[in-house]
Write a structure and sequence with these properties.
With 259 residues, the protein is α+β, with helices and mostly antiparallel strands. Helix content is 32%, strand content 15%. It is globular.
């Protein structure tokens, strides 16, 4: 069944793998993390580092809880699998391709760091080290439907597909022991690697990128507005839900409601 996982499945966070993202974020145990499990030799079915596929192999050792494509489950490692797909199909790392074909056109700093982990596969689930002003340029690109100056850098048709909410569907749930349980109905305000609301599952309409430790970018196309928040991990993850709620409330009261 794992062989039936498609690129569209992982773009939509619908791989079907039994990955419990909240439990992973709340835990520092190597047993929770395929990356650490692979490094410490705890995935015996996988090739040992420095083989470039050991992390993808380790991720795919997760139990398949749902038929691929049927149930939404937010997973950092679905995003890593996108990078694995990309490198396998194109022969290029995602970071170098982005640097050559996107970042350079936007004037994004050449020292922007997006590590390959392991080489040559870029860590597609995060770790992009980018200046706020350069991240805002990516927001501007989305605001103007993939167009930058006179260049159409990203297909408008592709952006329409990737930023459309998935709508009514099924959301993965986990029992008290952290094991996969029956999926629950839910309106999925998520497209392909983009949220479509300001909150995680509710809030005002906005194209939203949410990052580690409470960093996010919200793009309000109808208002011609981009809001960018940076953060750190000092108090993460215990205070993140409260902090995110406070930030959203502040932005709505002091910015959005006054426009």
């Amino acid at each position: 069944m794992r062989k039936t996982i498609t690129l569209r499945n992982v773009l939509q966070m619908r791989s079907g793998l039994a990955w419990n993202e909240p439990a992973w974020l709340m835990s520092f145990s190597a047993m929770k993390d395929p990356l650490l499990r692979a490094y410490y030799g705890m995935a015996p079915a996988c090739p040992a580092p420095p083989d470039s596929h050991f992390l993808a192999c380790s991720i795919l050792q997760q139990p398949l809880a749902y038929t691929p494509g049927t149930v939404w489950n937010y997973s950092t490692y679905d995003s890593y699998l996108i990078s694995t797909f990309f490198s396998g199909i194109t022969g290029h790392s995602l970071n170098q391709y982005a640097a050559d074909n996107l970042f350079s056109h936007l004037g994004i700093a050449a020292d922007t760091d997006w590590p390959n982990l392991p080489d040559p596969i870029t860590y597609g689930g995060g770790l992009l080290n980018i200046r706020s002003r350069d991240l805002a340029k990516l927001g501007m690109l989305m605001l103007y439907d993939g167009r930058w100056d006179t260049e159409q850098l990203i297909s408008k048709e592709w952006l329409t597909q990737t930023t459309a909410s998935q709508g009514p569907g099924l959301n993965a749930t986990f029992d008290a022991m952290g094991e996969p349980a029956a999926a629950a109905p839910l309106d999925l305000y998520y497209g392909m690697q983009w949220w479509t609301k300001t909150g995680v599952m509710d809030g005002d309409d906005a194209l939203t990128a949410r990052g580690h430790a409470g960093q996010f970018m919200q793009i309000f196309k109808d208002k011609g507005l981009i809001i960018l928040i940076t953060s750190d991990a000092d108090s993460y993850p215990e205070t993140l839900p409260v902090r995110s709620s406070q930030i959203n409330s502040f932005l709505k009261t002091n910015i959005l409601d006054k426009l």
